[in-house]
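#struct-help
A.M.: can someone run this one for me? Single chain, 230 residues.
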Amino acid sequence: MIFLFHGSDVDKVRTKAFEWITTARTKEPNLIYIHLSHTDITDTALEEISLSGGLFVRRLLVLIDDPFLTTRVKNTTTEGTDTSLAGSLIEKYLDMFVASDNAIIILAPKLATAKVKKIATKATKEYVFNTPTTNAVTRSFNSNLVNALAMRSRETLWLEIIRALRLGDTPEMLHGLLHWKARDLMLKGNRAWEPSEARRLSLDLITLVQDTRRKGRILSLELEHWALNI
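D.P.: on it. Structure tokens below:
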């Protein structure tokens, strides 16, 4: 019988496979555990794990570890090596694995879709662990926003706040960035902001978020209003 572990989250695929093996060995201590890496995969090895075991023989728990890596496998009939992929041998023995009483775990992170379909249809159980995907675009440091504040440009700052919100930035994120810039202006000052004015700006931003929470207002709208009145 085949148990297939695959998916794009390599670390999780491997972790879950070994957790499964640990659990299986705990439930059935008499299992003989065998670990085959891709370099150990030969016709002889795969035939042995397929045919060993039975009613009066201890069953095997076999981990075939990442067999679809490109590698040369040892040729048991001629000297040297041949150019067959270990994965090709796995495919050759799939039906024997299915018929076997042994538990054969195929651990294959990032397995190609075509291979997944071929093995999964024969597997007793398939375990998939993919890296979570998101439609959100990772945003870099918003220099346009902080530059608009530094220049004391009300209209530009207001537009940058609206633009950032539409791109998915949270109001809390924008508030934190603006408050950071206000404190930066306190320390350094510039032509548009005297240090005392920047201090007032920082305090206003603290008060803004406190009042918004206390009065149940919408932070994004409060930020827009604040920007037009700096």
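A.M.: thanks! The chain has two domains: 2-128, 143-227.
D.P.: also worth noting: Residues 195-215 form the longest helix (21 residues).
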